[in-house]
Amino acid sequence: MKANYFKERYLLYRAKNKDAEAFAQVYDIYTDRIYRFIYFKISSQEEAQDLTSEVFLKTWQYIIDGNEVKNLNAFFYTIARNLVIDYYRKNSQKEVSLSEMEKFGTEPSTGKKEIERVEREIEFSKIEKQMGKLKDEFREVIILRYIEGMSIKEIAEILQKKKGATRVMLYRAINALKELMEEKKKD
Asked: Per-residue b/e over 151-165, b at no fewer than 16 CB within 10 Å?
């Protein structure tokens, strides 16, 4: 964890000095995660690619303008989140399904791996249907925590909330999802 932190700080230092190669390394580290986050929230691969590029362009400009970035991970997700909000203001489209997300980036497999993939897809499909019923903020906090694997601290920075409030929101989101899943079992 600390090695990544120091590497990130070093790359940021180099990027701040207009080192494009350092920022290219930052791009390589974060591009898949940011793309996945954006793609999960909108249903168009092309739009997700465009918005992902915009995230990195905005970040590059912010850094070379001499602004300080304390947590690069949170900074990227904050920009991505804001761009998605702007996107939805301009367009009215549905969010991509979890099952579509599962299909994205997976390789064909055979035998036991194929069975596991199908089982995961069925489970994702069930969760996806219930996630669509959650409030946007609950859905977002679950995505950031369990799909993107972020810490409570990182999520709090992105959502611009205190860690305690973020922890409570995540707890409530999980409970709301559990309740929806239990209702589904009863049906």
From this structure: ebebbbbbbebeeee
CATH number where 83 lies: 1.10.1740.10
Q: Structural domain of residue 22, as residue ranges?
A: 1-95
In a domain, 140, yes or no: no
**Count of structural domains within the chain:** 1
pTM summary value: 0.60
In a domain, 90, yes or no: yes
Q: Which residues of the chain have pLDDT under 50?
A: 1, 93-97, 99-110
pLDDT for the residue numbered 163: 92
Q: Does residue 63 contact residue 69 with C-beta atoms inside 8 Å? A: yes
pLDDT of residue 122: 58
**Whole-number Å distance between alpha carbons of 104 and 106:** 6
Quick one: pLDDT at residue 102? 47
Rounded Cα–Cα distance for residues 82 and 99 (Å): 25
Angle between helices 2-16 and 20-41 (to 10 degrees): 120
**Is 184 part of any domain?**
no
Q: Which of 73, 100, 79 is nearest to 155 (CA)?
A: 73
Query: Alpha-carbon distance 54 to 1, whole Å?
Result: 28
DSSP three-state, residue 81: helix
